[in-house]
Amino acid sequence: MSSNPKPLAESEEEQQQLVTPWEVSAKQGGKIDYDKLIDQFGCQRLDQSLIDRVQRLTNRPPHVFLRRGVFFAHRDFNDILDAYERGDKFYLYTGRGPSSEALHLGHLVPFMFTKYLQDAFKVPLVIQLTDDEKCMWKNLSVEESQRLARENAKDIIACGFDISRTFIFSDFDFVGGAFYRNMVKVSKCVTCNKVVGIFGFTGEDHIGKYSFPPVQAVPSFPSSFPHLFSGKENLRCLIPCAIDQDPYFRMTRDVAPRIGYNKPSLIESTFFPALQGETGKMNASDPNSAIYVTDTATNIKNKINKYAFSGGQDTIENQRKFGANIEVDIPIKYLGFFLDDDAELEHISTEYGAGRMLTGEVKKRLIEVLTELVERHRRARAAVTDERIPLAISLGVKLLQVETLFAVATLRLGTLNQKDPHSEKVKRFLQLFRDGGRVLGVASDGETQ
Amino acid sequence: MSSNPKPLAESEEEQQQLVTPWEVSAKQGGKIDYDKLIDQFGCQRLDQSLIDRVQRLTNRPPHVFLRRGVFFAHRDFNDILDAYERGDKFYLYTGRGPSSEALHLGHLVPFMFTKYLQDAFKVPLVIQLTDDEKCMWKNLSVEESQRLARENAKDIIACGFDISRTFIFSDFDFVGGAFYRNMVKVSKCVTCNKVVGIFGFTGEDHIGKYSFPPVQAVPSFPSSFPHLFSGKENLRCLIPCAIDQDPYFRMTRDVAPRIGYNKPSLIESTFFPALQGETGKMNASDPNSAIYVTDTATNIKNKINKYAFSGGQDTIENQRKFGANIEVDIPIKYLGFFLDDDAELEHISTEYGAGRMLTGEVKKRLIEVLTELVERHRRARAAVTDERIPLAISLGVKLLQVETLFAVATLRLGTLNQKDPHSEKVKRFLQLFRDGGRVLGVASDGETQ
């Protein structure tokens, strides 16, 4: 469809670095050039003054991902802070495409950061599980995509969100009603040529791909969630995500004013590097490229010792003499994400770079940090039982309107059938509404608070 | 996007006759060549033996639209009759794009025929109101499209369907859940090039158009309606429609076996001619090209006397001498649709063609027939009050499962808000379900039968 060949120079440049929602690759053998990405996408760098402002407004230290530049770019984040300073609330929107059974550490990054933002600003959060997208892109069955969405939801819930302010939904369950009406409004404003330009689809791609961008766009608009935001259609939206998702939201921001909605703001992260080195995102098809939240302590130890790319010298003598190249050292990078103590990180980096620490010692510290993180996650996930999860997903919101019942019920039934033991809970839940009255809050076990 | 120019011969042919879901035009000054259309689309002619078979199976005279070739083409209609003869049921699916306030006589044709089929075979019926399509193609607001859908629903209900076997839904209300999951399944099987080939979209068309064909496709599959057809996923579907809708269902039939579903069967009509002559469908933007169900007796009389194209001679003397050309005479065509009495129609045609009847006499009889039809429709429509219609739309089905509650509730809430007086009815309706029990039938006033 884009039959015009691109100018050679641009085409060469694209071969060097490619960042789309489905493919991330640095130029040959190199790292992603994030400065170039900011220029190319037209977003803004998240500078120190913004980070200081976040600290001031939230009255707490900025998250390690802010302090260390993991979240490094934004679009109109200052508008969100302006609004917050005026006393206006906003809401957070993030998501996940459920394409694998277990999440790896890179998948946790946006959720850990979103949890921090939710805690710091005390705002509602919607989490979209794009099971429809993965069904179409990864050629999974509908049922398998939905199963993965449910499994991934457990890992997301385990990140510790404020369940009274969080709404997690699967597209296969939730698309419809106000959400679908917004999809149609967005679709009307985006030509085929436009999505081809943004996403690089071809004529041989199926129309599901052409249909999907509005699905990811509309959670940016509060009117897509009448059960949450009825009467608050002007609420601003902040989207924490990895920068490869930027194309969806460029499109969304382009459309928003044309349909009378606010543009969502974004706060965007770098990619979490593979164990083998920082040349892009991790490769889901290679289990040894990442630490998974299901890895045992032994797995973690072996993977880091065997695969984590080291910037240290090849012999102890050389290491003592020349020190490590910490710019390419994966254990240092990983500690940069997950070791909270700035002083300790600084100490390790200095000592290791100067040759006074060895790779083995740095890896040992990383193994401790990750083992603890994964163990903590495992315990939290274990508490999210099959029994609790559908209610946790669907009822983790203040229920203020009778409409909610139907959104919730529809959502629930997407995952249930008549013979499912949960349908007893639905019936119990229905009873709460039998007089059509208001229910101010429902705990995750289905009882009113 | 279809950058290859078509061979000249084919392109010339297309200029002569164009039939798409959005445009119907005969070759210059001529009529639609339906034989050519059957060849071009690859459907089959509905022959006398099939009509005789319908008569035998239903034990009643075939509908006037069958006897007189209004429904003239089909796809696998014989499979439906085979199944029926074996004692298997099927269901009917038809629809309407709500783009105008009032329906004209041409709009009624598929609904009148569908009512006959429902009565004759005693089968369930789903009616899709594609308000999403019209919002996108006609650039109507979401709210205006939904309003037109509700208005049109009243005219459809007035056609007298068996409300206990009929489910009328608007896409804006109903898309979601199993319906949306089927949309994704279909979308995965249709490339962009394919819809460009079938529907002629261009790169400058918006992606809503590319997304829509699966929405019209999936009512062909019983699994899109779990509240109606749960456990009957192999039920066959018969679609009565005008032949301009064939492209949607060619696509649907192509996809069906690839996703494990039966191909729908079709029974397809010619177009209802404009008052000004038989060169295509009526032009919605010219109110004088059609008789509307809202026209008064005076309107009808004036329109027919003034605009109905006559095949009669220009003077009484010439008419007596040469007779009328009944092949191009619109009053005769219209009587062919709506005058049930075969003997009377035969008599009028013969006398008029032989010059023993004058145009004025034929028009007078047509005015009587249409005035009565429109008056009957008006009375039936008046009985469909605003108060009754949402329940008639959503509850006109046997409610066999608790799931139904949620489909119905979702549907209802698409058209309601908190302040709507109907929400009282929803609450009452919910009470019926408070013990989670089965409800075997709900009448259109919301009470259990």
UniProtKB/TrEMBL annotation, chains A, B:
It catalyses: tRNA(Trp) + L-tryptophan + ATP = L-tryptophyl-tRNA(Trp) + AMP + diphosphate + H(+). PROSITE patterns: AA_TRNA_LIGASE_I. InterPro entries: aa-tRNA-synth_I_CS, aa-tRNA-synth_Ic, Rossmann-like_a/b/a_fold, Trp-tRNA-ligase. Keywords: Aminoacyl-tRNA synthetase, ATP-binding, Cytoplasm, Ligase, Nucleotide-binding, Protein biosynthesis. One of its GO terms (cellular component) is cytoplasm. CDD domains: TrpRS_core. It is found in: Cytoplasm. Its EC number is 6.1.1.2. It is an enzyme of class 6 (ligase). Belongs to the class-I aminoacyl-tRNA synthetase family. This is Tryptophan--tRNA ligase, cytoplasmic. It comes from Cinchona calisaya.
